[in-house]
Structures are given as C-alpha cells and as structure tokens.
Amino acid sequence: MPGQPGQQASQGQPAMPGQPGSAAASPFGFPFGTPFGNPFAAPAGGFVPGQGFPPGTGVPPAPGMAPGVYPHAPAFAAFQGAGAAMAMTPEAGAATAAPEAEPAVSAWTRNAPFTATLSTRQKITSRNAEKDVQHIEIDLEGSGIQYQPGDALGVWPVNAPALVSEILERHKLDGTETVKLADGSEATLRDALTHHADITQNTPTLVEQYAALSKLRPLQELVEDRKALDALLATTPPVGLFAEYPHPLPAQQLFSLFRPQSPRLYSIASAQDEVGDAVHLTVGVVHLRHHGQHYMGAASGYLGHLLEEDDDVRVFIEPNRNFRLPADDDTPIIMIGAGTGVAPFRAFMQQRGAAGATGKNWLIFGNQRFTDDFLYQAEWLQYRKSGLLTRADLAWSRQGEHKVYVQHKLQEAGADVWQWLQEGAHVYVCGDATRMARDVENALLDIIRTHGRLDEDDADDYLNTLREDRRYQRDVY
Ligand SMILES: Cc1cc2nc3c(=O)[nH]c(=O)nc-3n(C[C@H](O)[C@H](O)[C@H](O)COP(=O)(O)OP(=O)(O)OC[C@H]3O[C@@H](n4cnc5c(N)ncnc54)[C@H](O)[C@@H]3O)c2cc1C
Ligand SMILES: NC(=O)c1ccc[n+]([C@@H]2O[C@H](COP(=O)([O-])OP(=O)(O)OC[C@H]3O[C@@H](n4cnc5c(N)ncnc54)[C@H](OP(=O)(O)O)[C@@H]3O)[C@@H](O)[C@H]2O)c1
C-alpha cells in the first residue's frame, strides 16, 4: 500500500498552549494529563491507521484487511486525551486548483447499483453519547468502482421487517396480497413495502391522500390547517399516522400512498489509495420514537443496525466534482466539519497521506462532547502526531456553560485563517446545511473583513472569488 499516513515527514513539532501531559488547562476546557492522558503519547492499545494494533494488545489483524480499516475493536478507547490547537508553521504560498478531467466512475449507477457486502461496522460514539454514529466498511471487490475523496456513496435501503409488519397489521393485511409496482410489474405487498416504497418519510401528500381515503373527519380538518399539518409532519412518521388515525386500507391503496423508495447519499470517508476495493462511511443513525415505539431512519438504520456482516448492500458512486482536494499537493487546506461532516476529511487525510502530500492540513471539528463524540479520535491524534495534520481545533457544544461551535474556533483563529488564505489555502465545509454552513460562512466573511481590512462588499467579492477559484467548497446536507 503506497504511502501510509504516518510516513509523512513531520511538519514541525506541536507548539501549543496547555502542553499535553502538563497540568495546564487545555484550550478545550480539559486539564491535560489526567484523567484524559496525553493525546500525543504512543497508542495504548488502539488501532492506528497504517500500523494496526500495537503488539501485545491481543488484537490480530483481520485476514485481508487493508491498513486504515477499522476492525471491531475498542478504537474509541485508544486515546482518551484531549485534542489541542497547534500553532502552525507558515509555509510557502500555493497554487489555485483548476477543474480537471476525472476518470469515469464505473458502470454501476443509481438505477443499476452494484451489490456489495458489508464488511465491518463499529460504533464510534461512546456508550453515553446522545448520538449513534457508526463507522461502516463496504467491500467493493469485483465492481471496478473508482471514487475520489469528496464523492458520496448512494445506498439503496431495505426497509426494516418490523416496520413493514407493523404497517401491515395496522391495515389488517398479511402481506401476501398482490400489488402493482410503478413499472407495471407485480409483487406481494410485503415485498413492495420492503423494497419499493419510502415508508419512513412522511409528506404532506401522503397525509392528504390518507385523509381523503380514510374520510376521517379530524384528519381532514387537520390537513386544512397548514400549521397543524407541519407540526404533525415534524413528529409523525407514516406508521405513527396510521396509529393515531386508524383506518385500514386495501393493499393497493396502502402501497400507493408511499413515494417510491430512493437511495440515500453518504459522504465517503476513505480514499482508495489507502483502502483499495472498499469504501468507508460515517453514518449518524436517525432514531425516533412515536406511540411508544422505536424507529430508525430507513438507510441509517439499515446500515447502522439491521445489516449483518457479509450481507449484500446495493450501492453506487455519486461523484461530487465540487468537493475536491487541490490539484497541487503543496496547497494548504482548512477542513471545517461538524458531526458526521467529518467524513470526507478522513478521506482527504488518507489521500494526502498516501500521496505524500506536503501541503498543510488544518481540521476544525465540532460535536457535542469530547469524551463521547470525537469521531475517529485515535486517527486524528495519530495524524497530528505524524505531522500530516498540521493543526486541529475542536469545538464541543455540550460540555461547558456555553455552546462552542466550529465557527467560534474559526473566529478565534481568524488571524491564522487569514494567513493560510494568503498562502493559497483551500477551505472545505461539510455537515449541516441549514445552521452550521450558514454560520461558518458568516464567520469566514467576518474574518475576511477584519483581517483583510475589507468592507462588506469587498469581503463578499473576496469569498466569491475563492468560490469561483474552487478554493471554497462545501458538501452540506
Ligand atoms: C450529499 C450528502 C451527503 C451525506 N452524507 C452523510 C454522511 O456522511 N453521514 C450521514 O449520517 N448522513 C449523511 N447524509 C444524510 C443521509 O443521506 C440521510 O439523509 C440520513 O442518513 C437520513 O436518512 P435515513 O434513510 O436514515 O432517514 P429517513 O428514513 O430518510 O428519515 C426518517 C425520518 O427521520 C427524519 N430525519 C432524517 N434525517 C434526520 C436527522 N439527521 N435527524 C433527525 N431526523 C432526521 C426524516 O425527516 C424522517 O422523518 C448525506 C446527505 C447528502 C445529501
Ligand atoms: N433532517 C433533519 O431533521 C436533521 C437533523 C439533524 C441533523 N441533520 C443532518 O445530519 C447531519 C449530521 O448530523 P450530526 O448529528 O452528525 O451533527 P449535527 O446535528 O450537525 O451536530 C454536530 C455539532 O454541530 C453543532 N451545531 C449545532 N448548530 C450549529 C451551528 N449553527 N453551527 C455550528 N455547529 C452547530 C451541534 O451542537 P448542538 O447540537 O449541541 O447545538 C453539534 O455539536 C447534519 O449535518 C444535518 O444535515 C438532519
């Protein structure tokens, strides 16, 4: 395997406030040293990308497992050290990326997906975390699929058998009834609800049609009231609607209520130069409760809990040419991500490590709590230790008196952000589109105004130019 992370020449020793191992307070509100230990100490028993488990840990490498693969192992426990913001060493300026021709992806598409297999799954939030985030590895052997860091994987979900059964029971059907699918072919109702219908996402149309078919007066009144309808949609999955407003429908009417199933996209968290014929994902499982029952999102529940190892999963690559590493390996990058938004940055680091890229890499990552939600903690610390990761700033939103978000870290480091921009840095943002991405953009504009001494219009122009030059790219959802 060419150029493992960890082979990268060190880009200078960390020089940081609150030296790890010292009693000084870290910038993240944790004292370094006990109880979290030294984040830069040698791994105490965790998996290290490109190196595997240290001898004596009793964790053998899985047969055929590529370096960088996350096996079932206590990787989360590998480092309980706080991350730290590192001072960076200024380097020479960098070139601007230009869109370039890319190799064809593969013959496998949304409508003709490849049947891959799930090879590994591991929860990467702690037992106490509010979020359930699963690291997923899918074997692509035999597909010929090629992807680039920045691409997404499309996954066709298979609906949960328990959810299909509950919907059937609520309509007093046994699932053996025959229904007509959108393409005119026939299937049993159970098969149709399992594979062909989106039975997890509620829509105004679904509620309106159900109100019309059921002729239930309270539901008909509800759909006339936009606010009440929105409130119902925000909290009620289709099965919850059937539970709250029972009215058994015949098989075809029931099936026709639902939109056709659609694949869900996941930012790819691996680089093929590192993992070969595999693809890694970082899946935040959607859990919800209604009428005393627990449900999961169709695709996140399927990937995160329902699929068993070696089970089939239908996938395809969704290329994203608007989220690409700079063409020039010397160019510095600033990666800003919250929650599962960290996924493509893991791919970026694997790629830069494999390529022996010399450009500086800065991660600004935010999540709820350091102890519970530091996704890929051991890997980031190892990258930091090897020098591949030049700087890491971490924002924990639920462990202090005040919310600390990635944009706060960005603003605190405004002078350095501006300096990196002068050196030609590319800026990447990944994660929540509605709140985080908007606030990060405002923080960037503020930095450009303050440190570039530009007025509002000129700062807007500056950011637009970065965007046009492909130096400001977002993968937000
Ligand atoms: C380009 C792109 C990249 C993405 N990358 C990732 C990624 O790397 N990791 C990742 O986890 N997701 C990612 N997503 C989101 C992912 O595609 C799904 O939307 C998500 O997993 C929910 O799908 P589901 O099938 O599990 O839930 P659904 O069955 O679609 O939804 C079930 C119910 O939950 C609600 N819901 C949906 N999402 C959430 C949520 N996050 N929190 C609360 N309620 C919700 C829905 O409104 C619905 O009521 C990405 C999306 C896009 C467009
Ligand atoms: N469709 C939906 O209903 C829905 C709901 C949630 C997430 N999502 C999607 O799922 C993606 C990933 O979710 P996730 O659970 O991994 O992460 P997330 O919900 O985006 O949370 C990650 C971190 O971002 C913080 N955050 C909240 N508001 C922020 C803001 N305005 N600016 C910066 N940071 C902010 C959160 O803090 P706090 O939570 O402590 O405030 C948390 O620390 C999101 O990006 C989003 O697109 C969808």
UniProtKB/TrEMBL annotation:
The keyword Protein biosynthesis does not apply. Its EC number is 1.8.1.2. Residues 111-326 form the FAD-binding FR-type domain. Residues 1-30 are annotated as: Disordered. GO terms for molecular function: flavin adenine dinucleotide binding; FMN binding; sulfite reductase (NADPH) activity. This is assimilatory sulfite reductase (NADPH). One of its GO terms (biological process) is cysteine biosynthetic process. It holds the Pfam family FAD_binding_1. Its cofactor is FMN; FAD. CDD domains: SiR. One of its GO terms (cellular component) is cytosol. It is an enzyme of class 1 (oxidoreductase). It catalyses: hydrogen sulfide + 3 NADP(+) + 3 H2O = sulfite + 3 NADPH + 4 H(+). Keywords: Amino-acid biosynthesis, Cysteine biosynthesis, Electron transport, FAD, Flavoprotein, FMN, NADP, Oxidoreductase, Transport.
